[in-house]
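Worked example

This section walks through a single chain of length 580. The input is the sequence exactly as stored; nothing has been trimmed or padded.
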Amino acid sequence: MPQILSHSFHIPVMGIGYTLDTPIKIAKYGVSSAISLAQDDVIERARKYYCEKYGYDFEAITVKEFEFRSKRITAYLNLVNKIVNKEFEQLKNDPQELEKYFSLLPESEDLTLDEMKEKIDPLKPGSIDVNIMTKLDREVPESQDSLTEACSAFKGYAESDVESSIVLSAGMNPRLFTYMQDFKDMFPDENGNIKKQIIVKVSDYRSALIQGKILAKKGLWISEYRIESGLNCGGHAFATEGHLMGPILEEFKTNREARSEEQFAICKEVWLEKGLTVKNDSTQRITVQGGLGTSNERSFLEEHYNVDSTGWGSPFLLVPEATSIDNETLIELSKAGEDEIITSDISPLGIKFTTIKGNSGERIKEQRIADGKPGSPCFKKHLALIKDEDGKIDCTASRAYQKKKIKQLDAEELSSEEYKVKYDRITEKECICDGLAVSFLRKFNLVDNFTNPGVSVCPGPNLAYFNKTYSFKEMVDHIYGKINIIDVPRPNVFLKELNLYVQHLQEKIEKVQLPLSKKAKKGLVNFKENLERGIGYYKELTDYMNAETEAFKKNFNQELEKYLAVISELELAPVEEIRN
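Given that input, the structure is written out below as tokens.
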């Protein structure tokens, strides 16, 4: 069998700082990863650090410069690209590094140095991808820059040297989608190649169809759909209405050709109107991430659903060669088990957020509450998205916002129990702007006086089954089944997600306000039915799990029956409590 000279996994974006320099660390070995473009100030400090480390001149881009945010992003991406290409060229002439490159491949084999050199031509570094969370698109009144945050981040990427992909996550942003049309690298060149490609991250099929058509009508081709589990993932959890990963992947697989042809036809029409060379390839890559933990799971997704790559996020938080995390946080992550990894309400975005109990961000928040000073100083205002009755825009995690809300709460005549519930709801929010970046800054001694010190960690539930730090080679070898680094019981990725969704439905039912409207009742019924259909689908899927043992399949089906029984017993609401 000929050796496969490329990787079938990628490292998704994690937090703001955790994968900020991941391409510098591992792209030379052919592994792709994604950089968050959320915070230009952190990016600028990273650029200064790496310029000094690699001996490049550094000239600061200050906030006084017009469009400083996009310029900082462009400068950093150009630097990363320069470093990656330089180190990749050095790797090809370094016997030890060249041997490591080949040893990491999915089908490594013993090769002599001469044999490796004969295979150099098709080798290439991993892609330096970037991520924009499309919902983070506030206007910046304190800046001379007329661009919103998402648009300026996109411009920074679009004007950089890198030839890679931009991952659009968290849904639609019409303003950003329209702005993307202004950059030629988003369209086919004279040879039909698109230098800057688009990856859309979705947690359900319907979203993929809607966004695909919207972008195609603008001539913007989606090269890849990146499917992420709604709940079995790190950071913000965008739960579906009970749609599970397996059925979603089946829908993508079944409609793959028809969907890509339809979107390509729309794009082609726009390209022809613009006088552009039409690219010949209408293939859309399908990748998946969220909760993967074994080589069998990876190979099953590749073979049964024809996915092109699988994303491995949380496990790489424990790989210092790949991600940048301070030692204290690294220890907290390695010790976190199932009981410590929780889905919380700490995010100012009002979206569920997966984190671990007792991290430094939580400890500092609780100490501020105990001191009678709840909330965080709001230096960066990236999540200042709430407009109050006075028209002022603020972040729900900020000290000013929480102080105002607590004052309003004090004016209400509430029982102590009611007061505490509302007080806790106000003060539970954390500054994740700084929280998701400060660990990177701590690691390299880059923290300044305008950075909140608490670290917010964002692993997915899957981290619970990885309990120490690992070398890069150990993790890659585990992904490809060359070794096994998990020594604790771990549920299958599909079962884990199902468990999380059953819990999610139980919580929705417990929090529902009675009397229940017909619309709310219909939503809960649909959620329940989607889970039941998903379980039915999984019962048939075991016939295709050829790499698993009969004992595994038996246990898998027993677990499905258990969850089906739990769902069947859930009472959505008494009939008399339903209103129009």
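What to look for: Residues 227 and 288 are 5 Å apart (CA to CA).
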